[in-house]
Design goal:
Involved in the lipid remodeling steps of GPI-anchor maturation. It is found in: Endomembrane system; Endoplasmic reticulum membrane. This is Post-GPI attachment to proteins factor 3. Its main location: membrane. GO terms for molecular function: hydrolase activity, acting on ester bonds. The chain is built from twelve helices and no strands. It is mainly alpha-helical. The protein folds into two domains: 56 residues, no CATH class; 215 residues, Up-down Bundle (Rhopdopsin 7-helix transmembrane proteins). Helix 5 runs parallel beside helix 12, helix 9 packs antiparallel against helix 10 and helix 10 runs antiparallel to helix 12. It is elongated.
Length: 320
């Protein structure tokens, strides 16, 4: 879902790639020694097949092994748990670096799939352009959560960019929907405005991706762009609700979605070492968004039903 609220510091807040742990002399020495005869290294044993298939190399495996070696040594001496390369130490599973986040990313993707299927099954007599937009939103989000699962499986430059770019694309498309609702851009009389707005969105996304791909990745800019888009989306939905609530009582659902997503963000602020080296605040944030996806699609479905009724459901929840 990676959409709607972006005070989403989470997705784009990984601005620091170096951390206290990877600067420790004992960690650097451990990695240097491991690269000589560690698993997958020139003089070491072969990496397990599952690690080869998931893209682990000599250096990546040495960093993983030394992260846990140094962490356990620090804990035994009463020291603190450090972050390494911007991440807490995680216990990998089947080659996946952050298995809990992978699982919850997949569940979010499945929730969007359920929403997509529900919209497809909704039979409409009246032509409604928002049905197509809601379906496209679901497809974008399904793709985005697949990218998230890949990124949490293996944090590589390619998977990182896929995750970040798909997140921005999802946010931008949700902003497009909210602004289209607010200013009634689906109206044929506003066709030229709608097309100009579409072109502006496509142009922005193209420049955004090009800038972050052709030059060094600017994490601060990426975060600022995501927050700006998300806040625009939120504002659009809130203004639309203020204007439509007396006619569309189901509009409270999108407000609830925005508020609950914002509350779920508090999990990110907690940022603590993973429980059992698996479950951290970021994974919990992904877990919290799963049920909220169903709330979002409940709103989308009610909106489509309301339009299908010709606005006859005044003063009622469209789902009744």
């Amino acid at each position: 879902m990676k959409l709607v609220v972006w005070t989403w510091l989470v997705l784009f807040g990984r601005c620091v790639r170096a951390s206290s742990g990877d600067r420790l002399p004992e960690f650097q020495q451990c990695v240097s020694e491991c690269k000589i005869d560690g698993a997958g290294c020139p003089n070491g044993p072969r990496l397990a097949l599952i690690l080869i298939l998931t893209g682990w190399t000599c250096e990546a495996n040495c960093r993983y092994q030394c992260t846990h070696t140094v962490t356990q040594a620090s804990i035994k001496t009463g020291g603190s748990v450090h972050q390494f390369y911007g991440k807490w130490p995680f216990a990998r599973l089947l080659g996946m670096q952050e298995p809990a986040s992978v699982l919850f990313s997949a569940l979010n993707g499945y929730a969007h799939y359920c929403g997509h299927r529900a919209i497809l099954r909704l039979s409409l007599v009246r032509s409604n352009p928002f049905k197509r937009l809601y379906l496209l939103n679901a497809r974008l989000c399904m793709f985005g959560w697949q990218c998230s699962a890949l990124f949490h499986s293996r944090d590589l430059p390619t998977t990182e960019k896929l995750d970040y770019f798909s997140a921005v694309a999802s946010l931008l498309f949700n902003a497009y929907i909210s602004i289209s609702q607010l200013f009634k851009l689906a109206d044929s009389r506003r066709k030229h405005i709608r097309r100009a707005f579409q072109l502006a969105c496509i142009l922005f996304l193209s420049i955004h991706i090009s800038y972050l791909t052709l030059w060094d990745f600017d994490y601060a800019y990426n975060m600022a762009a995501g927050i700006t888009i998300g806040m625009s989306s939120n504002l659009g939905w809130l203004l639309w609700t203020a204007l439509q609530y007396t006619r569309r009582r189901y509009a409270y659902k999108i407000v609830a979605f925005v508020v609950l997503i914002s509350c779920a963000m508090a999990l990110e602020v907690l940022d603590f070492p993973p429980i059992l080296w698996v479950l951290d605040a970021h994974a919990l944030w992904h877990a919290a968004t799963v049920p909220l996806v169903f709330l979002l699609y409940s709103f989308f479905l009610d909106d489509l039903r309301f339009e299908e009724s010709g606005g006859a459901l005044l003063g009622k929840d469209a789902s009744e």
